[in-house]
Each structure stands twice: as C-alpha cells, then as structure tokens.
Amino acid sequence: MTAIEVRGLHKAYGGRKVVDGVSFEVGEGEVFGILGPNGAGKTTTVECVEGLRTPDEGRVRVCGYDPATQRAEVTRVLGVQLQQSELQAKLTVREALDLYASFHERPADRQALAERLGLVPHLRTRFGKLSGGQQQRLFIALALLGDPRVVVLDELTTGLDPRARREVWSLVESLRDTGVTVLLVTHFMEEAQRLCDRIAVLDQGRIAALDTPEGLIGRASAAKEISFAANTPIDPAALRSLPGAVSVRTAEGRTVVGGTDETVTAFVSLLAREGVTAGQLRVVDATLDDAYLDLTGTDPR
Ligand SMILES: Nc1ncnc2c1ncn2[C@@H]1O[C@H](COP(=O)(O)OP(=O)(O)OP(=O)(O)O)[C@@H](O)[C@H]1O
User: Fold this and answer.
1) Whether pLDDT at 273 is above 70
2) CA 191 to centroid of chain Cα atoms
3) What does the sequence similarity comment in the record state about its family (predicted)?
4) By 3-state DSSP, what share of the chain in percent is helix, strand and coil, each rounded to 5?
5) Which ligand 1 atom is at minimum distance from the Cα of 43?
6) Coil, strand or helix at 298
7) 283 with 224: CB under 8 angstroms?
8) What CA–CA distance (Å, rounded) separates 155 from 75?
9) In what order do the strands lie in the sheet with 247-251?
10) Does ligand 1 come within 6 angstroms of the Cβ of 44?
11) Taking burial as the number of CB atoms within 10 A of a residue's CB, which of 45, 166, 193, 244 is the most buried?
C-alpha cells in the first residue's frame, strides 16, 4: 500500500518557484530519503506532506488522506519530529511526554516508549539539560506518541556528534523493523546510504534522480577511482585514453583517474608496459557522495 503520495507538487513563494513538479510515492514500511542542496525545496515538500503548507498545485496524500483538508485524520496517522526550539528548556522529559500524549486520542504507552528510546534515566531531567542526542531521542519519542503509521524526520542528526548520530540511526532502524514508514530529510550521505530504501535527490525544486542508494551510486560518472603517486611521470593523455576513463586529475602529488573496472585492468597493463611503479596505489568504488555531486554539482556538506 502507498503510505505517502506526492504528485505534480508545485509551490512558489512571492512568484518564485521553489517546488516545481515534484512526484514520488512511498510504500508502507519504506524509509524514503530526500537529499538536496540548501534551498532545493526539501522542507517545503515535507511541510506540504505534514499539512503545514498548502500546495499551489498537485496532489498530496498520507495513508489516503489529504493533509490540507483532512487534518484530524492525518494527525492520527502521521508523526512529525519537532524542531528543537519548540520545547521549553524547563519542561522535564516526563512533562513533555505527558503534554504531547494529551494531544492524541489514543496515545502510545509512554513508559514503553521511554524505555525503547533510553529515556527512563532522564524522565526528571529538564529539556535544557539534555545532551543533543538525548534531545533528539525525545523528539523521536514525541513523534511516536500518537502511534503513527508514517513519521517525518527533517534533519534529525544535524549538530550531533558521531556517537549520538549512530545512536539515532539505530533508533530509525528499529522504527523500520516495526513497519513504520519514514520520510527522512538529510544532508548526510552516510545517513542516507545506511538508512534509506530509496532516495529522491531534489535540486532547484525538481527531482534530479530517484533510486535506491546502490542505484544512485551506479549513476556516478566514474564507478571506480584509481589514485596513485608514480615514481616517473605518466603522460596524462595516455591515462585519458584508457578504456572507460572519464576523468584524470592531480591532487597533492597524486594522480586520480576516474573510470570503470576496465580502466583499472588497462591501467595495470600500462604500468607494466611503461615500467612505472605506482606508489600508494588505491582503487576505490564510487560513493553516494560522488553520485550526488554528479547529479547536483554541489557538495552535500
Ligand atoms: N515562507 C517562505 N517565504 C519565502 N521563501 C521561502 C519560505 N520558506 C522557504 N523559502 C525559500 O524557498 C526555498 C526552498 O526552501 P526549503 O526550506 O524548502 O529548502 P531546503 O531544501 O529544505 O533547504 P535547506 O537544506 O537549507 O533546509 C529557499 O530559497 C527558501 O529561502
């Protein structure tokens, strides 16, 4: 079943189009990522899904309900991660859980949720005294209080240290295991690659690509990168003419050739033929970063 449907979504601010014909569907139980440079229209898109913005044009449905006109129904099925500033510093974790539970007709079991998210030792701690990772765990708990079928997480791990980020990732993985559908907006490639079943890359209000992480990586112009420091110079033209080679550049005394498996084999033969020794030779596979850069021409960080 389709959990989220977005079809032909358009939104402009003051005559400037920021979402320009975005369409995607998220299946039940899927973790769907939205990636894109600053200002690409990611938040505007998810805010239309949440019912916080009204589309100028297009169809948006969450579990079959229209967020613009069926707010009560959408609130029952959708959980939204709050932004940090929306909680008062003096509110304790328990008070926050009680307050947000009161917004729902049939709230989830607060104690079980607190246990699942490791919040039990912090129930009496004020929000302002929680670490960044603990605050994010509380935001996830609040998003889950209505026992939602769909959760929207927008830049969930921005500002967290690597350990806290990994902790939050495990929580999202455990959400997936319970069959909850997740719409995740992120700037982190590693996060998208690890958590998402499929990813839409948004660029200037349009979907530049929509695929699995592996599918997107396969679209990088160079599937392999050979990097080395040669003991004698190699003619760049010879490297460029290697079969499958798409790029040759030098960086910090090293030469980097982008290409395919075929390029790697031909490169090794070239070294043997020319009697060149390549020091610190490395061959690495393309990553989601490479694919993202090729698709958007911008660095994700
Ligand atoms: N209420 C608003 N009024 C006018 N312009 C807005 C409004 N909200 C967003 N914008 C503009 O619309 C564009 C898209 O913003 P949006 O927040 O959707 O992008 P984003 O992809 O989420 O960006 P970021 O990664 O920086 O959060 C930006 O140029 C932003 O300045």
Assistant:
1) yes
2) 6
3) Belongs to the ABC transporter superfamily. Drug exporter-1 (DrugE1) (TC 3.A.1.105) family.
4) 35, 30, 35
5) 22
6) coil
7) yes
8) 21
9) 247-251, 254-259, 224-230, 278-285
10) yes
11) 45
> Residue 295 class from Cβ within 10 Å (0-12 exposed, 13-18 middle, 19+ buried)?
middle
Quickly count: other Cβ atoms within 10 Å of residue 36's Cβ: 28
Q: Is the CB of 103 under 6 A from ligand 1?
A: no
Q: Which residue lies with its CA nearest to atom 24 of ligand 1?
A: 38
The atom of ligand 1 lying closest to the CA of 14 is: 4
Question: Which pLDDT tens digit goes with each residue over 10-67?
Answer: 999 998 999 999 999 999 999 999 999 889 999 999 999 999 999 999 999 999 999 9
Any ligand 1 atom below 6 A from CB of 296: no
pLDDT, one tens digit per residue, over 97-112 is 999 999 888 899 999 8
Handedness of CA 60, 146, 27, 191 (dihedral sign): positive
Do β-strands 198-203 and 224-230 pair in parallel, antiparallel, or remain unpaired? Answer: unpaired
Residue 75 has φ and ψ, to the nearest 5°, of -60, -30
178 to 114, 125, 139, 174: CA distances (angstroms)? 16, 28, 18, 7
Determine what percent of the chain is predicted with pLDDT higher than 70: 98
State ipTM. Answer: 0.95
Please indicate whether residue 40, judged by its CB atom, sits closer than 6 Å to ligand 1.
Answer: yes
Full set of structural domains in the chain with CATH: 2-83+146-217 (3.40.50.300), 224-285 (3.30.70)
Our answer on whether the CB atom of 300 is closer than 6 Å to any ligand 1 atom is no
3-state secondary structure of 235: coil
